[in-house]
Every structure is written in C-alpha cells, then in structure tokens.
Amino acid sequence: MDFPKKLKEKIVEIVKKTMKIGKDDPRKIWHAFKVGLSLTLISLFYYYRPLYDGFGQSAIWAVLTVVVVFEFTAGATLSKCLNRGFATLTAGALGVGAKYFADLFGKEGEPIVLGILVFTLGALGTFTRFFPHMKRRYDYGILIFVLTFSMVTVSGYRVDKILELAHQRLSTILIGAATCMIVSLIVCPVWAGEDLHKLVYTHLEKLANFLEGFGSEYFIFSENDEIVKASNEGFLGAYKTVLNSKATEEALANFAWWEPGHGSFRLRHPWKQYLKIGVLARECACHLQALSGYFNSKPQVPSEFQKKIEEACTKMCIESSKVLKELAFSIKTMTQPSSSAAEIHLRHSKAAVDDFKSILAATETLLLSNKLDLLEIFPAITVASVLIDVINCIDKIFESVEDLSVQAHFKKAKNKEFSSSSPEKPPPQHQLLHRGIVKPVVDVDDVDSGGDFVAIEICSGGAALAGKAEVNPAVVKK
Amino acid sequence: MDFPKKLKEKIVEIVKKTMKIGKDDPRKIWHAFKVGLSLTLISLFYYYRPLYDGFGQSAIWAVLTVVVVFEFTAGATLSKCLNRGFATLTAGALGVGAKYFADLFGKEGEPIVLGILVFTLGALGTFTRFFPHMKRRYDYGILIFVLTFSMVTVSGYRVDKILELAHQRLSTILIGAATCMIVSLIVCPVWAGEDLHKLVYTHLEKLANFLEGFGSEYFIFSENDEIVKASNEGFLGAYKTVLNSKATEEALANFAWWEPGHGSFRLRHPWKQYLKIGVLARECACHLQALSGYFNSKPQVPSEFQKKIEEACTKMCIESSKVLKELAFSIKTMTQPSSSAAEIHLRHSKAAVDDFKSILAATETLLLSNKLDLLEIFPAITVASVLIDVINCIDKIFESVEDLSVQAHFKKAKNKEFSSSSPEKPPPQHQLLHRGIVKPVVDVDDVDSGGDFVAIEICSGGAALAGKAEVNPAVVKK
Predict the structure, then answer these.
(1) What pTM was computed for the model?
(2) How far apart, in whole angstroms, are the C-alpha atoms of residue B102 and residue B118?
(3) Is the separation of the CB atoms in A240 and A286 below 8 Å?
(4) Which residue of A25, A28, A46 is the best one to mutate when testing the B interface, meaning the one whose CB has the most B CBs within 10 A?
(5) Distance of CA B296 to the CA centre of its chain
C-alpha cells in the first residue's frame, strides 16, 4: 500500500531536481540534446545502406567515439577528439609496424614478441600519464594510444587484413570525432573559456558583496540584529564557493586552451592570467572567512573605541567592495581597469586605512580619559587588521587584472561608463544593501564627480551612526 | 649541430623526472607494471587457440576494458569495473529488448523507432550525469549504459545474431573487468581509503609544523633574521597544499567507498568523517595563511607590549601545534584521541589564551607609564587574535577527530604511548626546529609527567628571549 506513494514522491522529487538543474543552466539540457543528436546522426551509418557498405561492422567505433568523447564544454570535447584522433593515428601505424616486426620471429616467436611489446608500451604509456604536464593535456591521448596499439597488435595475430582493420578503425573514429566537434561547436556551444571568464568575475563580485554587506552590518548596532543576521546568510556564505574553486578553474583553463577564438576571445587568450587572479581571489576569500567568524561574535554594545574607528572601517569595506565590483565589471566588459573607477576607489580605501591608523596613533585622549580597555577593543582591532589585509590583497588583484587587460588587449572604456553608473543594468548590490544607505549616493554623486568623495563619507558615516535612517537619494543629490 | 645536444638534454631531463616520480611514489611504477601485466594476461585470449575459439573477435573488448578501466587506486578500479559490468548487463538486456520492439514496426519503421530510442536514451542518460549524486558514484556507469545500449540497438539493425553479440560483449567485458580487479587487489594494491587516511593526518601534521615553526620564530628577535626566514620557507609553504585539497579528498573518499575492508579499515569505514576533518583543516590553513603574511612583516624590534604577550603567544603556538600532532598521531595509529595527550595540550593552549586576555585586561600599568602606542602593538595583537581563531578551530578539529574515533571504533591507547614519546620514530619536527629549543624538553619531561608544564614554558620563553641560546637537553632534564 505504501509503495506507490513512495514511488510517486520519489518521482516528484526527481522531476523537481531535473527542473532545477535545467533552470539553473539550460545549457545542460542543450548538451543532452546535442549528445542525442550526434548519436542519431552517427547511427545513420548503419541504417543507410551505401554508408554501411563502406565501413561494415567497424561503424560501431563511430558510435563508441561519440558517446565517449562528447563533453559538456567545447574545449573538453575538442581536447578529447584531437587526442583520440592523433593517438589512434600514431598508435595504429606503430601497431601495424609492430605486427610486421613480430612476423620476423616466426609462428612460435610472434606471440612472445607481441606480448613483450604490449607489456612494454602498456607500462610505459601508463607511467607517462603520471607526468603532470602530460596528465594535464594529453592524458586521454595516451590512454587511447595504449588502447589502439594493444588492439591492433593483439588482434593482428589472428586477423590477416590488419591494415584494413587499422584503417577502418581510424576512419570511423575520425568520423565520430568530427561529428562531435561539429555539433559541439555549432549547436549552442558551451565555451570553457567563457565559463572561466565568467567564473573569475563572479567570484570577484561575490567577494565584493560580502565586503559591502559586512561593512554595512558589522559596525551598525540595532535591536533586531538576529533578523539582520538571518537575512544576510546569503552574502555571508557566497564567498565559500570561491575558496574551493581551484580545481574547477584549472580544468576550465585547460579546456579553454583547446578552444578556437570565439566572441571577444582570441585563440591565444591569456587563460593562465585568470588562474592568477583566481589564486588571489581565494587568498582574499580566506580573509573573508576570518571576518565572517567575527561577524557572528559581534559585540552587542559598541565600545567608545569602536565608534571612533567605525567610520574608517566602514569606508574600508565599502570602498574595497567597490574596487572589486569595478574590477569585476572591467573583466566582464573587457575594458581596461585603469580607465574605470577602480583606481579611485582603491586610493580611497587606502586613505581609509591611513585614517584608521591615525586614529590608532592618536589614542592619548582615550588614554587620559581612561576609557580604553584593550580587551574590549580587541575584536574591533582584529576586524580592522583583517580588513587591511583584504585591501592589500585587493591591491594585488588590481595589478593582476591590469596584467590581464594588457595581455588580453582589453579595450579602453568609452565615456567613463562605470559599472555603477550604467543605468540599464542595476548592479547586484541593490538587492543586498537592504538598508539603502550608501547606494543612492554612489549612483548620483560619486561616479560623476570622480574625486568628490568627502560628501559620501560623511553621509554614509552619519547614516550609519543614526541607525537605520533611510537617506532619500533626492535629498543627497541636492 | 645543435640538435643532438638538445635531444640529449631533453632525454636526461625526462629520465630525471621519471626517477623523481618513481622515487616519490614507487607505487606508480607498480601501477604501470600492473597495467602491462593485465594487458599481457588478457592478450593470451588471442594467442591461445582454445580460448580464442570461444570468443573470437569479441575478445578485443577485453583488451579495451583493461586499458580503460584500470585506475591507480583499487577503489577507482573497482568502481569502474562494477559500473561497467552492471551497465553493460542492463543496457545489453534493454538493447536486445529494444531491437525486438522495433522489429514490430516492419522494415520501414524499424530504423525510425531505433533512432528515436537511441536519441531519447542518449539524451536522458547524458542529462542524468548532471545529478550530483549520480555524477559522484555512477558517472562512468551511465556513460557505459548509453554506449552499450546504442551499440546493441544500432548494430542489431544489421546483425541477425544480436543475442550472441550482446552475450559475447558482456562476457568479454566481465573477463577484462575481473582481470583488472584481481590484479589491482592482489599485486601491491593501492587503497584510496588508506591514501585519504594518510592525507588527512599529514595535513594535520603540516599545520602543526607551521604553528611550531611560527611559535619559535615570530616572537624571537635575532640579527640574522633573513637566514632564518629562508630556512623556514619549507614549513611556511607546507600549509598551502592543505588549502587546495578539497577535490583530492573528495575523490579519494568516493573511491574508498567502493573498497572492501582491508588492514584496519572495515567495509563501512566512516570516510565521510575524514572529509569533515578536511574542511576544518582547510579553515585552519586559512588562518595560517594570514599568519604567514604577518611573519614576513615581522617588526625588527620588539615593543614593550610584544615582550609582555610573547610568552602567552608562544605557548599558544606550541601547545596548539602539539594538539594537532597528537591528533594526527591518534588518527595515524587509530587510537582514541581522548586517551592521548591531545586533550591536555588543548587545555594548555586555552589556558594560554586566558593568560593573554588577562594581560590585555591588565593594561593599567602600561596606560599609566604611557608606554602604550596602539599603532605599535597593532601587529602583535592581530597575530594573537588569529592564534585564538586557530585554537578555536583546533578545538573543532579535536571534536571531529573524536567523532571519527567513535565511528571507526579506534582502539584505546596502551600505556599512554604518545606520539612524542615513541622513541623509534622521531617526529618530523626534529628537522624543522633547527634551534632545538623546545623539542628536547618535550621528549624528556612533558609527556611523562603529563601536566608538568611550567618548566617548559619558562624554558622556551627564556631561551626565546636570549636569542639563539641552545639549551642542553641534559640540563633541562635535571
């Protein structure tokens, strides 16, 4: 009685999961469609008599090739196709040679010679796959090399028409590989390079969102902190995906290496530079992890000292977040970061660090008034210190993105069209900064005037001190 | 003229690389040997007439299976073999069914029905591979399922003896897979589970080495700091491999799931718990990355305040390092951490945190004597704060290792045989702590008496203050 109900639940669950995967990335549905299409195309070799007569039973290798070789990204598919093609070609030739060589030893000696050859090449090939450079790029090729060589030499012992066998295998594999490449490159292609590009700049955006959220929350004390914390779980967790992205980024960069030029990416796009930015982004995410720990143990009541450094620290967060957003935007649009507002914000964030340090240095008043308790200011000082590390790290990211922009020939931005000023695409911070303290100011004031920053600083600081006071953009504009 | 020289250089380079890989992990050479052996065994099917007569040309599938299925670890090989075997079985049965079903539609309708079936199953199967759970465990199985189904149905259109074809393919694949499994499990097996086990405890050791090195270096001020820094690059860099270990750990855990019980690992060993420890180790490594940043910008001259907190901070480092070492040792030997010295050291490190906090709280003297410059104490305070985070993290690691010890039924340690007291295996810190300040004391005193810690603390602190003064273990013993 219970079984049909459970089955129904299971089916509903699977359908929901499928819908979710399809919705998150419709290219996955396309990919499944493309594999089905290639398989059907290839099976025409069997159904259509004239084609079948040319290849016979060997046509099955084409089917096998399609299933094994078709990968999600175009780069991965190309890499496998080319590896398979070249490996089959060379190993086939070598295998035929080995067969004729073994023939010299007579009917008795042949299997022994063949056995030794297969063992040697199998072992050598397998060991070669441990070389990091080979593994990264030619792993599949070596596998197919060993496979083809073994198959040709071993079956050559029984089959007389070994040349024909090798030739049929090669041509069917080439047909299968060509079908895969064409379908993969033409029907809604998934570019690994584009994915890497997107991954790197969304990671920067995630870091920026964290910093923005942290800056607007940590130094503000309100009664409903619990609610705020709950609503912030999104941005607090997003940096975690950055932390463990190394394997994905490297795989994508490897696949991207195989891809032809497409869109704004040329054939020799500096994919390695993306990996360097990725390393720095992970370093930055590491610091954010430390910050998120402090966020949870945020003191209930602000100390005197905390109020003093609040302005500088908030500025550090907000400005460094803006640097990251500008950098992400300049990668996204492939414009030079030096022509964006990133540099200005970076300077501002460094100025905030100096502000903070001068507050620290000028503690005499606190000392005299005996208001200073080191234990109490301990968390705030640590947070500030981590923020300084973050800014140093962002400095390095800035340089790295600049290197990328030079290597990849990013274009100059026209009319200073900064990310935050483009009205048609509201940046994601709108959804995030639910208190709307800083954003309205930035939209109107900061970007147009470029260097006119004091107004914002006072404004955001003031608003922060006043709790949840909503600043009307129109008022600020005046 | 230049070519032979370059070729020679290249060959020498390749030989050196090969030697290095073989030396680092001799199991890789064994693996290559094993693949060669399996290939040679399988090719006997061709050379030996009675065996060949049974299978004919289909025997080539056995060769193919061996090359494709043989992986470095036993778990990966088993996973691929079982996936391949079951997928071939079910897909073969389904394929034969599909062929008879398509027969019902007559000679005209058959290719259309077959085409639709192949497309549908190909697309569905490909999409299924995107489900995270399926991808993790049955990715290869689905691939082979689609492959076999397509091959059987497509070639069924031309071959009349489809049942025989499916049967031959299945039995040759099973023979190939069985050969791989037997060779992989019997000849010098490489267990993914054992690798994971080893990886996790060496990661803890690496973290411990960093903390030990940091503790004995950061708070010591000597003239030849540059030399010290250079010699420390080893331990300063080791934690980095921990940071990016997620992918490796998860792959190993997946493979380990397939492995039968071996050595001290049972069939259902809690591999998932190792991943939990891994997550915490990475969190800890994140903090260490922050610390290593401060190590490079270490102040030349210690401030008054720094001298004050030095003792507590050094103790935090050394004690937390010992906790990690004990935990690593208890994982390594599969003994319960609660019966090791880990708990004692954890308590000591927490006591050091309290010491530090009470120093911070008692700043009145500093305030009155006006010796306190917040800007100057800033780096030291930050380092201490990160150390506190590290200890909190280690606390979590301790709990996690305890969970593991319960789930995996770790045995109780006999006679309190702690890692640091076992004389036959000198722990790696010997090579590391080149100043030999702390280690000799630990060997003789600390472990046996268990709680008698004051002597060491003073000693290491004193030695640290005195610069590079070498403490004779014999003297300390008295």
Answers:
(1) 0.80
(2) 12
(3) no
(4) A46
(5) 28
